[in-house]
Design goal:
The complex is a heterodimer of chains A (115) and B (113). Chain A is an all-beta fold. Chain A is built from no helices and eleven strands. With 113 residues, chain B is mainly β. In chain B, β8 and β9 form a beta hairpin. Chain B is globular and about 40 Å long. Classes of the chains: A mainly beta (115), B mainly beta (113). Chains A and B meet through β5 and β10 of A and β3 and β4 of B.
């Protein structure tokens, strides 16, 4: 199993450009998440999808959109990139409330720089 | 909304026990406490999770007092490979559309020889 995969690993954008970050998981998990991680800020939830067909805003959704394409794939789109969106983006997946299990499996991250 | 507070950094030596405490005064009834480990240039990795009292697995123990306003991650006999950032996460396991996941800012643990 590959677990959670993310593409691309690195990306440089100019202000105003758009791009989509891709995420896929092969663990048959219902829930998927997008986080951003900035120095000194820890992880902040951007959007999550509790199950296929549903998406909800997290703590910092402004400037982002998401699509839960199917059970495996959850993409994050920046319509008009801004320097404030320079960050490391992590995708994660988990079972959905199976007993007390709440373990999230993370991808390797995408390092995005907006100039 | 539960806010979590944890020490920014800690130092230890190989073979010692390390205890990292996370404060979460506004924890909700449905919230669980989860700890993750993160190495540079990698995503976080699950260590342990609990709701109350004590939980132990093969790598760590988690102590949660009765009021649940704090929790302590205990790493027995640390080695150099335990040098990492440790995050406390408070979140609800309640299946709903308003799930909240509040991560601490992380504790950078340095294990010295």
């Amino acid at each position: 199993n590959a677990g959670v995969t993310q593409t691309p690993k690195f990306q440089v954008l100019k202000t105003g450009q758009s791009m989509t970050l891709q995420c896929a998981q092969d663990m048959n998990h219902n829930s998927m998440y997008w986080y951003r991680q900035d120095p000194g800020m820890g992880l902040r939830l951007i959007y999550y999808s509790a199950s296929e067909g549903t998406t909800d805003k997290g703590e910092v959704p402004n400037g982002y959109n998401v699509s839960r394409l199917n059970k495996r794939e959850f993409s994050l789109r920046l319509e008009s990139a801004a320097p404030s969106q320079t960050s490391v983006y992590f995708c994660a997946s988990s079972e959905w409330d199976r007993g007390t299990t709440y373990e999230q499996y993370f991808g390797p991250g995408t390092r995005l720089t907006v100039t | 909304l539960a806010k979590t507070t944890q020490p920014i950094s800690m130092d230890s030596y190989e073979g010692q026990e390390v205890n990292i405490t996370c404060s979460h005064n506004n924890i909700a009834t449905n919230d669980y406490i989860t700890w993750y480990q993160q190495f540079p240039s990698q995503g976080p990795r699950f260590i342990i999770q609990g709701y109350k009292t004590k939980v132990t697995n093969e790598v760590a123990s988690l102590f949660i007092p009765a009021d649940r306003k704090s929790s302590t991650l205990s790493l027995p006999r640390v080695s150099l490979s335990d040098t990492a950032v440790y995050y406390c996460l408070v979140g609800s396991s309640y299946a709903g559309n308003n799930r909240k996941l509040i991560w601490g800012l992380g504790t950078s643990l340095a294990v010295n020889p």
